């Protein structure tokens, strides 16, 4: 059985950023074996090719095999599986999530998958003590008062309006709402300017936007935000400090992908960026990498719509799908774990939560393991603001923590970061959409185009943008493909009980 825990060594090319890789990618090993772009493509066949070995792609492949597909191949561009989930070792034997991490109790499909795979989920330790707020250079901790009565009243009013608009949206298809075009013509910045008059009322909604989508209110439309408010069951659940205690997977959420990939074995090909899909109605369906040409009955593209920009589609996709892919925006994120001998903040009456308007990190949480040591803070920020060199970047993060937690924050024993901005195969961590995208092109999100199907968390009917959404989208895409293949007799119909 292949060991997917050990990524293939990075090629020099893989270390180069985005466009260079996308434009002229080579396979891992291809250079060593002397193949080149002009070398004839190795031909293979499969019932289904899945593109992307993130959670959604691996779930798709797994479900298709369960449904009776004879041969499924998963092509992954990176030299590892897991996509937006990655486990990092913060201290000997202590793993943290550089990407997707927290799940909610209502994330039932991923919790069931984890149980099947033997990965346990535990509650995040409930922080006792006070959070710290740091805005406009003013630090408020403990009993400090944040909201005036007027601001609380306004925040409740904003919440009620957003949730009432959310109630108008059809589940999983906000573009079909009667007022979709109207809500999608305005940015959250403009909506807040019209509906908010207090500093903290507005700020709280802006924080929910930043926390959920990693962007400012000018970068997201009202329709997109309201759809998220609805999908997450209310504005409160989009707030960084919500009342619900999330769970994390022991050993990190990448475990799920690693275990699925191990079970799929040689069906998963790493270092295999797909460059072209040819779906001429009169010819065979073909998926191509630099080295392979695979003929198949169906293909599933399992990634964020923006990621599909790197694939050439022949013939060209219909305009709504093409525009959706072209205009989809992914926000970059920077996630960093800062490790201390012990969680010193707890002794100071702090729960490790910090929220602020700093340019380096703006959300901080206590991520200390349940054993109580080492002390770990996890922080989020916008990668663009940080120095490129690893050392300078890590120093900037520790400096930023001093403002929240004081001098003790200087005593970090390790800093482990993940800058998604520099990851060539991910267009972003979350999907805020500017005005005019969702209402015009949203309907093209998951409908198959010819023999091409679409998975990826953003295509999920529920919990889109989360790991739960990724799992659900994989299950939906697999069911869709299995139905199509059964109709064509490629895979057998499920056995029915007689009599
Ligand atoms: C910093 C961060 C924090 C997050 N926090 C949470 C959280 O706490 N809880 C939560 O539920 N979710 C969280 N998420 C979101 C969650 O991780 C994602 O929604 C989910 O993992 C997406 O899975 P996916 O399969 O849809 O896409 P991806 O994981 O993006 O998988 C797509 C795969 O396709 C591959 N690919 C791209 N182009 C090609 C190509 N041309 N050929 C072949 N392969 C290709 C990519 O390399 C990738 O492996 C977070 C994400 C980030 C980055």
UniProtKB/TrEMBL annotation:
Entry keywords, A to Z: Oxidoreductase
Amine oxidase domain sequence ranges: 55-481
UniProt family annotation: Belongs to the flavin monoamine oxidase family.
Superkingdom, natural source: Bacteria
GO molecular function, one term: oxidoreductase activity
UniProt cofactor(s): FAD
Binding site for FAD: 56, 76-77, 274
SUPFAM superfamilies: FAD-linked reductases, C-terminal domain (SSF54373), FAD/NAD(P)-binding domain (SSF51905)
InterPro entries the UniProt entry points to: Amino_oxidase, FAD/NAD-bd_sf, Flavin_amine_oxidase, Flavin_MAO, TAT_signal
Keyword Nucleus found: no
Protein name: FAD-dependent oxidoreductase
Gene3D superfamilies to which the protein is assigned, alphabetical: 3.90.660.10, FAD/NAD(P)-binding domain, Guanine Nucleotide Dissociation Inhibitor, domain 1
PROSITE patterns in alphabetical order: PROKAR_LIPOPROTEIN, TAT
Residues the entry annotates as binding substrate: 380
Pfam families reported in the protein's UniProt record: Amino_oxidase
Naturally occurring in which organism (per UniProt): Polyangium jinanense
């Amino acid at each position: 059985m292949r060991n997917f825990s050990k990524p293939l060594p990075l090629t020099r090319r893989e270390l180069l950023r985005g466009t260079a890789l996308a434009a002229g990618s080579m396979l891992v090993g291809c250079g060593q074996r002397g193949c080149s772009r002009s070398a004839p493509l190795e031909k293979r066949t499969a019932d289904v090719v899945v593109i992307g070995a993130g959670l959604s792609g691996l779930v798709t492949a797994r479900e298709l095999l369960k449904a009776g597909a004879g041969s499924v191949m998963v092509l992954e561009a990176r030299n590892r599986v897991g996509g937006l989930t990655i486990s990092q070792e913060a201290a000997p034997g202590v793993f943290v999530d550089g990407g997707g991490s927290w799940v909610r109790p209502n994330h039932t499909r991923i919790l069931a998958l984890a149980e099947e795979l033997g990965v346990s989920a535990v509650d995040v330790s409930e922080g006792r003590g006070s959070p710290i707020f740091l805005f406009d250079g003013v630090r408020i901790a403990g009993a400090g008062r944040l909201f005036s009565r007027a601001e609380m009243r306004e925040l409740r009013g904003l919440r009620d309006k957003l949730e009432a608009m959310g109630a108008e949206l059809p589940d999983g298809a906000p573009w079909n709402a009667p007022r979709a075009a109207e809500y999608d013509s305005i940015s959250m910045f403009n909506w807040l300017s019209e509906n908010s008059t207090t500093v903290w009322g507005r700020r709280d909604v802006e924080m929910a936007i930043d926390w959920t989508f990693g962007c400012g209110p000018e970068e997201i439309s009202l329709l997109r935000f309201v759809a998220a408010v609805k999908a997450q069951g209310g504005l409160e659940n989009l707030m960084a400090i919500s009342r619900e205690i999330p769970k994390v997977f022991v050993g990190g959420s990448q475990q799920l992908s690693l275990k699925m990939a191990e079970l799929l074995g040689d069906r998963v090909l790493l270092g295999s960026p797909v460059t072209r899909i040819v779906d001429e109605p009169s010819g065979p369906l073909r998926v191509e990498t630099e080295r392979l040409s695979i003929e198949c009955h169906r293909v599933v593209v399992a990634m964020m719509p923006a990621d599909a920009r790197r694939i050439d589609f022949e013939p060209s996709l219909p305009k709504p799908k093409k525009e959706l892919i072209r205009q989809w925006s992914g926000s970059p994120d920077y996630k960093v774990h800062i490790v201390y001998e012990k969680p010193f903040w707890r002794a100071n009456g702090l729960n490790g939560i910090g929220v602020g308007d700093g340019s380096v990190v703006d959300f901080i949480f206590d991520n200390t393991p349940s054993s109580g040591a080492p002390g770990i803070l996890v922080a989020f920020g916008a990668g663009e603001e940080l120095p490129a060199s690893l050392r300078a970047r890590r120093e900037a993060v520790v400096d930023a923590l001093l403002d929240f937690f004081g001098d003790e924050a200087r005593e970090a024993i390790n800093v482990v970061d993940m800058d998604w901005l520099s990851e060539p195969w991910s267009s972003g961590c979350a999907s805020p959409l500017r005005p005019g995208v969702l209402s015009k092109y949203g309907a093209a999100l998951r409908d198959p185009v010819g023999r091409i199907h679409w998975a990826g968390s953003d295509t999920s009917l529920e919990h889109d943008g989360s790991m739960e959404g990724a799992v659900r989208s994989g299950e939906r895409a697999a069911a869709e493909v299995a139905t199509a293949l059964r109709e064509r007799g490629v895979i057998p119909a499920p056995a029915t009980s007689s009599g």
